[in-house]
Design a protein that fits this description.
The complex is a heterodimer of chains A (374) and B (573).
Chain A lengths: L3 H5 L21 H34 L16 H9 L2 H19 L6 E8 L2 E5 L5 E2 L2 E4 L4 E7 L4 E5 L4 E5 L5 E5 L10 H11 L7 H4 L9 E5 L11 E7 L2 H12 L7 H11 L2 H4 L19 E3 L5 E3 L2 H9 L22 H13 L5 H8 L1
Parallel strand pairs in A: 1-5, 4-10
Antiparallel strand pairs in A: 1-2, 2-3, 5-8, 6-7, 6-9, 9-10, 11-12
Helix pairs in contact in A: 2-4, 8-11
Chain B lengths: L4 E4 L17 H5 L4 H29 L13 H37 L8 H25 L11 H4 L4 H28 L12 H33 L12 H35 L6 H14 L15 H29 L8 H24 L1 H7 L3 H31 L5 H27 L14 H31 L41 E4 L4 E7 L17
Antiparallel strand pairs in B: 1-3, 2-3
Helix pairs in contact in B: 2-3, 2-4, 2-15, 3-4, 3-6, 3-7, 3-8, 3-13, 4-6, 6-7, 7-8, 7-9, 8-9, 8-10, 8-11, 8-13, 9-10, 10-11, 11-13, 11-14, 13-14, 14-15
Classes of the chains: A alpha+beta (374), B mainly alpha (573).
């Protein structure tokens, strides 16, 4: 059900998305209509109080503004029944807000049995969704009309998962699991192949995919925004991803399968670059030599670094592998041991692909091979 | 009139009596124990802090002019933005809003309204001012030196892992907390013990009730902030494992500790504003305040209930459902006493004789803005809608309507109301009113669009944002520029009055509280002897003297008993 006021304000051309209401983004989950309805009702109540009060104030202001020195018409000091009435009367409305708010809240809090479960890992500054069987992806893909439960954890500081179109939000607190659920009601649309091909061509050569520019994912789906809502440091405002709602379970399974491992037609280095962007490496490791939270990947492979522990190490295949699985074992001097472990989250082929990608960024590739030959 | 009346007007102070001129030299200010001078120094201090915080706010708004960020550029743009909003929040909260009304105006007014010569502990009063200065310098230098970027809330584990100077900044806040406690303690003792004969609790001006309620919160809640900050320092240095999950701590525990202080602190900020508005509305309507007891009791109710609602800052943090629902219920109870006050102010204006002076313009904008701030709180207290609105611009707009539309506007109204009393000069009324209109329009321009931004899903504390939010962000920025101009205008009006303002009469507005019974500015001793105390809102005997543009209080000629002067000079004379 769409609230009346929301409908009235629908044609507001200056707000980018014309299909949205004045107050809210599109309603795309079963919670949305519930929340919007409660919101609109509270809004009516507030307007019903605010407008007469301000009209009264304006009227007294005009009517009773007098020349200095004129006496007030009345010097009444109080009227207890009247004051009790306006103290206690509106409380009924407050009780309604509390009760209605709590009922809806309990619905939103308790996931139904047998919900589709997606694991969510939040980190500075990105998301990894776990689709089981070793498939991880930063985008959240779910199925229309299927209750979906997110089991969420954070590897560093507090984050908060917020999907405005679903009217759903929950903090993700390190050291514990937090859960949320929702039932999406609107499926993403698929853009035409030509449009997708055009966008793909345009975005070639640039880092990653510009979701805001194209308004669809690299797979060609329109999406709903997913934000981090709890301040988490430097790139808090870039800690965004998207939600894609598939029409059927089969479509989702097909998408998962396509993203579970390296496709036949991709080289390890290409797949490694994809993982670099997709799995959050790029948040801390640049590929252009600039220093972020961790060492840059440019010219890293084959170079020699001093470790925080004191000794030196040359970056080889095995060192990279160890740093992915047990990042705190050998930390390069000048950096904090803050990287989470990817043990069990990347397959052997994935790790080999990342190594291949690092090799492609380095001019030292030949040297270790030569050293091995000696 | 049938019977002859005598009028009472204290006239003007001589230079020797005037508290501003009775001694001179920088040392006479630095070591002064006069509450009025300390109040004036606080006023300069908090206005300076406000100017710094306000410029930072303009920086935030200018940055958000463009989705990709306009003001700060380069690789560090996000970090600079994060530091700027942290600084803005921390300076505004700890250095401006909390001390603004109680420490600056309260210091000046509490003893004068009580007909007393000073506060109960003048030396404690001066030391609290120096603690404030010391804490402010410490705090600001810590913030600027390493670029604190935790937000003013210092949430763990971000604050225990960032490499910026969290320890120094929290120590600064700790020191400022002591300054706040000292002021609160001083006012509690002063109001309890130094009321003049005849001033019962229910004959106190409502500003004193509000100050009293505020002081209770300051004394009871601020120590919790101190404990929290000490624990935070212990966590960072010794890893005691309370807040940091890496050492088996719980970050949500920190939020409980923090909001147990910081929610009552919200009422430290707004209660004195309620007190000011009660005075302003009544005096400028020349009508007895309506429902004195309800207003007085509601201040105390807010002070007590304010301690029970801290959990509403954490509805999405993963507290148990039962806890969440209980906090929601308690949150609604605290809205009742605030609503009572607004209704009573409106009823006070009804059938009054309103003078649309500058302070009254601020009081009327306060009612408008604070009502919006209060009503939008209902959306956030309701659990279902809060889950969507929490940590979005809706919250930002809501608390700015309360803190700026409420406290700042009331503070400005109070400054304009008591300015003639403090400095002995009248400012230009029409320019004062134009400035208040600009502030009103600029404020709404800044924060009304933010409600819509928030309900449409724009998260707060974002340095960059999705392009669909650009239009509303730009509106907000233009509003902020207008607001800045309005505030600057108001400041210039006040400064010009110092140079060329008309000499202020003792009672320029027609107030009946005691501060209007002494000269403007008051003599350094305030009152020679405890003044006669009546109903602080009884305007029957206050008459307008059009010739001299001032109000005088009249009383029927009375026979004094004994009629003859005693033959002998009393022994103690």
């Amino acid at each position: 059900m769409t609230p009346v006021l929301t409908n009235l304000m629908r044609p507001m051309p200056f707000l980018a998305d014309v299909e949205d209401s004045f107050w809210f983004p599109k309603q795309a989950s079963s919670f949305a209509s519930e929340v919007d309805w409660v919101y609109d009702f509270i809004l009516y109540i507030c307007v019903a109080f605010f407008v007469p009060m301000m009209a009264f104030m304006l009227w007294t202001m005009i009517k009773y503004t007098k020349k200095k020195g004129e006496k007030a018409e009345s010097q009444v000091t109080h009227n207890t029944p009247l004051e009790l009435a306006w103290s206690i009367g509106p409380s009924v409305l407050l009780v309604w807000m509390f009760v209605q708010g709590s009922i809806s809240y309990l619905d939103m809090r308790t996931p139904p049995e047998g919900s589709y479960d997606v694991g969510v890992t939040a980190f500075k500054w990105g998301w990894t969704m776990d689709y089981g069987a070793g498939t991880f992806h930063p985008e959240l893909h779910i199925v229309k009309d299927e209750p979906t439960k997110l089991s969420m954890r954070s590897t560093d500081v507090i984050h908060s998962l917020y999907i405005p179109a679903f009217r759903a939000k929950k903090d993700i607190v390190p050291g514990r699991y937090n859960y949320m659920w929702f039932k999406p009601t609107v499926a993403s649309e698929k853009v035409s192949d030509e449009e997708l091909a055009k966008a793909k061509k345009q975005s070639e050569g640039s880092d990653g995919w510009d979701y805001d520019k194209y308004q669809f994912t690299p797979d060609g789906y329109t999406f709903f925004d997913l934000y981090c809502a709890e301040y988490c440091g430097t790139n808090h405002s870039q800690m965004q991803t998207v939600v894609v709602v598939h029409e059927t379970q089969e479509e989702l399974q097909a998408w998962i399968k396509a993203n579970s491992s390296r496709p036949e037609d991709q080289t390890p280095a290409e797949w490694g670059q994809l993982l670099y962007n997709r799995r959050g490496c790029s948040g801390c490791h640049s590929n252009d030599g600039s220093k972020l939270v961790g060492p840059s990947f440019k010219e890293l492979y084959g170079s020699t670094h001093a470790l925080a522990a004191g000794s030196d190490i040359t970056v080889t295949d095995n060192y990279i592998r160890e740093s992915i699985i047990d990042p705190k074992a050998k930390v390069v001097a000048g950096y904090q041991p803050v990287m989470p472990s990817y043990k069990g989250q990347l397959s052997d082929d994935d790790i080999a692909s990342i190594i291949a990608y690092l090799q492609s960024l380095s001019s030292n590739v030949a040297e270790p091979a030569a050293a091995a030959a000696e | 009139m049938s019977t002859s009346t005598i009028s009472r007007d204290p006239g003007y102070p001589t230079d020797r009596e005037n508290y501003l001129t009775n001694s001179s030299g920088i040392l006479s200010w630095m070591f002064t124990l006069d509450h009025k001078r300390i109040g004036l120094m606080y006023l300069i201090g908090v206005m300076t802090a406000f100017a710094v915080g306000g410029l930072l706010a303009l920086g935030i708004r200018l940055h958000l002019l463009d989705p990709e960020g306009w003001m700060f550029t380069g690789a560090e743009a996000n970090n600079i933005y994060n530091q700027v909003f942290t600084l803005h929040g921390a300076i505004m909260v700890f250095l401006f809003i909390i001390p603004s009304v109680p420490a600056a105006l309260g210091n000046f007014l509490v003893p004068v309204m009580l007909g007393a010569k000073d506060v109960a502990f003048p030396r404690l009063n001066l030391s609290s001012f120096y603690l404030w200065c010391f804490g402010a310098i410490f705090f600001v230098s810590a913030l600027f030196s390493s670029g604190l970027d935790t937000g003013w809330t210092f949430y763990t584990p971000y604050s225990t892992t960032t490499d910026t100077s969290v320890i120094l900044a929290t120590l600064g806040a700790f020191i400022l907390g002591f300054s706040s406690i000292f002021t609160g303690l001083n006012f509690i003792v002063t109001i309890n013990t130094m009321r003049p004969p005849g001033m019962t609790w229910f004959k106190m001006p409502l500003f004193l009730w509000a100050t009293y309620a505020t002081s209770i919160i300051q004394v009871l809640a601020t120590p919790v902030l101190g404990i929290t900050l000490l624990l935070l320092i212990a966590e960072r240095t010794m890893h005691v494992g309370i807040f940091d999950p890496e050492f088996n701590g719980d970050p949500v525990t920190y939020q409980h500790f923090f909001w147990f202080y910081s929610h009552p602190a919200v009422y430290i900020m707004i209660l004195p504003a309620f007190g000011i508005i009660s005075e302003l509305i009544s005096v400028h309507s020349h009508k007895h305040i309506f429902g004195y007891r309800f207003i007085a009791y509601s201040s105390i109710a807010i002070a007590l209930l304010g301690f029970l609602v801290w959990g509403h800052h954490m509805f999405t943090s993963g507290m148990s459902s039962l806890t969440t629902i209980i906090f929601s219920a308690l949150t609604f109870t605290v809205s009742v006493p605030s609503a009572i006050k607004v209704f009573n102010w409106l009823a006070t204006m009804y059938k009054g004789s309103i003078s649309l002076t500058t302070p009254m313009c601020y009081a009327i904008s306060f009612i408008f803005l604070f009502t919006i701030g209060g009503l939008t709180g209902l959306f956030l207290g309701t659990l279902a809608t809060d889950l969507h609105l929490h940590d979005t611009y809706f919250v930002v707009a809501h608390f700015h309507y309360v803190m700026v539309g409420g406290t700042l506007i009331a503070f400005l109204g109070g400054v304009f109301h008591w300015w003639p009393k403090m400095v002995g000069k009248m400012y230009n009324e029409s320019h004062g009113r134009i400035a208040s209109l600009l502030v009103f329009l600029g404020f709404n321009g800044t924060f009304l669009p933010q409600f819509v931004l928030g309900s449409r899903g724009m998260p707060r504390r974002y340095a960059t944002y999705d392009p669909e939010f650009a239009f509303l962000h730009q509106m907000s920025t233009y509003g902020a520029l207008l607001l800045g101009c309005g505030l600057l205008y108001a400041f210039i009006v006040l400064m010009l009055s110092l140079a060329k303002g008309r000499r202020a009469p003792a009672n320029p507005w027609g107030g009946a509280t005691l501060e209007w019974a002494c000269t403007s500015p008051p003599p350094y001793y305030n009152f020679e002897r405890p003044p006669v105390v009546g109903d602080p809102y009884d305007f029957h005997n206050i008459e307008w003297d059009a010739k001299e543009e001032k109000y005088i209080s009249t009383e029927p000629e009375r026979k004094l008993v004994p009629e003859e002067t005693p033959g002998q000079v009393p022994a103690h004379h």
